[in-house]
Amino acid sequence: MDQLLKEKTSGKPRILVAPLDWGLGHATRCIPIIKELLNQNCDVWLAGEGTQKELLRTEFPQLPFLDLPGYRIHYAKTKKGLLWKMIQQGPKMRRAILYEHQWLKRMVKEYHFDAIISDNRYGLYHSEIPCIFLTHQLLIKSSAGKWTERILQNRNYRYINRFTECWIPDIEGENNLAAELSHPVKKPAIPLRYIGLLSRFTIHSPLGAGGGVGGGHLLFILSGPEPQRAILEDKVIKDIGHYNGTAAIVRGLPGSSSLIPSTNMIRIYNHLPAAELNAEMSAAEYIISRSGYSTVMDVVTLQKKSILIPTPGQTEQEWLGEYLMRKGIALSVSQKKFSLNDALSKAKEFNYTLPPIPDSSIMKQTVTDLILSLHKQ
User: Fold this and answer.
1) Is residue 202 part of a domain?
2) Cβ–Cβ under 8 Å, residues 199 and 293
3) This prediction's pTM
4) Is the residue at 101 inside a domain?
5) How many CA atoms lie within 13 A of 24 on its CB side?
């Protein structure tokens, strides 16, 4: 690392932001926080690896980046196999958490960070500086029953309570998006702040892509761990050839060299920078994606109709898809039974009822309060 980067500017807080490597959503929802930190004259550093690193380097090429291994979770090919697969990977996750905690101690000593913002990375707490844990999932859903949810929540809180504060990307009142996931009866012991919805996108007029012959423009956003990302991609590629309209497919593979050729009607991208993806989302009649929470925040921010396909066996996404469908926010369909024609037919009949556009001022004030607390130290 360049010696000039190590030297701190007086009065300019140095803050490290590090998202989990479990899909791209943890990285994308950190983007508005990073932008706000920069707007408030912070010296922002980033950490991660793989596709998260590629995405954040694309958005913030000027910021210092530290290599930090992720949890490197892999999914099973079947829904039934996922629970056992996750149990098998438990020891690996615990080793990763221990490693990143020791890593952080070294980085704080070497680079003199004033604060840490950790998106769901349990080991990034430190005894001498403020450490923020960012999560929407205080209650972890389990397919094995309520008793396992209580065990998982207690384990979750043992880690979260090591941090200084917990920021929750949701609304505190009745228009919240994650319901009991982010508003459980039992709360962590540390202070909680509901900071509003986090999205890197803004509403603007659709650009370029309009309705195709016989149908509106579709946008597919693929994401998440393998092999489920690729399984859904195969289904989408198979069905989209029969669609009588225009569509764009974003594969969720920043930095990948593998390519799928586009056609006049169907454009396929490995990845799109935020501004271009913002335009594609604005142009789409329907956004078709996983029911990952970060994507849901984007859809609500842009006030778009969506068709959500939960990752099989990922109980949080399955629960969230069902909850959002009951609320009229999104249509949710299973991957196993997914058919594009059938999903579009259901979407046309679905009574979409989107909540109000979220207020971004809550997050800005939260960042301001953090910086003020650092100046007082």
Assistant:
1) no
2) no
3) 0.87
4) yes
5) 29
